[in-house]
Amino acid sequence: MTQRLESLLQEAFPGDEVSVEDRTGGGDHFQVSVTSARFDGLSLVEQHRLVYDALAAPLADGTIHELRISTKGIA
Amino acid sequence: MTELRDEIKGIIEGEDVALFMKGTPQMVMCGNSHRALEALRRAGAPVTAVDILPDPRIREELSALSGWPTIPQVFVRGELVGGADIVEELEQNGELERTLSEKLGPDYRGAGAERVVAVA
Predict the structure, then answer these.
(1) Nearest residue on chain A to B80, judged by CA atoms?
(2) Is the Cβ pair A49, B31 closer than 8 Å?
(3) Check: complex ipTM more than 0.95
(4) Residue of A nearest to B67 (CA)
(5) For residues A30 and A20, is the Cβ–Cβ distance under 8 A?
(6) Is there a cis peptide before residue B69, judged by omega within 30 degrees of 0?
């Protein structure tokens, strides 16, 4: 599951640094971190929306029970 | 638009600080809701809490309104501030207090006690 989320993030943020951690080992509580120039100049709400967009499918089908997001720009 | 959605919209727009959470401040049912509540408390925010658990439609209508897929969700004077991660980060860097002062006035800490409202 971690790999599925990672590949979704890599698709949405090509070439950027992404990481996914399964916080409990149960495959449904995740910490995701993304560092991308796309975040530069965006509010935190806008930054997190981009991550939610990338993970829309696993969020909608209930795969992700709990998600923690950490975003960073480059600038 | 449904009646329930109108009711939720009324809370978002009418309350100074609205926290949509799993459970209530007295009995929090989720780690992220707890994190958001505690960050708001540290900032002295006058929180109006809404438990989304009693009816799955509350969460559906809320996310349809906000475009935000997860719980908790924090609004200040109608504007989405974010979920647990963002609220925690803004509290730690002092921006949450700044936003509350700007939107609610510098005396916001005395503005009201924590309360819970039920929808549906």
Answers:
(1) A45
(2) no
(3) no
(4) A49
(5) yes
(6) no
Q: Let me know if B96 is exposed, middle or buried by CB neighbors in 10 A (0-12, 13-18, 19+).
A: buried
Query: What tens digit of pLDDT does each residue of A32-66 get?
Result: 999 999 999 999 999 999 999 999 999 999 899 89
Say whether pTM exceeds 0.90.
yes
Q: Annotate B26-91 with three-state secondary structure.
A: CEECCHHHHHHHHHHHHCCCCEEEEECCCCHHHHHHHHHHHCCCCCCEEEECCEEEECHHHHHHHH
Q: Which residues of A touch B31 (CB under 8 A)?
A: 66
Question: Which of B86, B90, B98 to mutate against chain A (most A CBs within 10 Å)?
Answer: B86
Q: Is A15 left (phi over 0), alpha (psi -120 to 50) or beta?
A: left
Half-sphere exposure of B105 (CA within 13 A, CB side): 7
**Cβ proximity of A47 and A35 under 8 Å:** no
Does domain B3-114 correspond to CATH entry 1.20.1260.10? no
Domains of chain A listed by start with CATH number: 2-72 (3.30.300.90)
Nearest to B40 by CA among B104, B84, B101, B106: B84
What are the C-alpha distances in Å from B20 to residues A16, B53, B59? 32, 10, 9
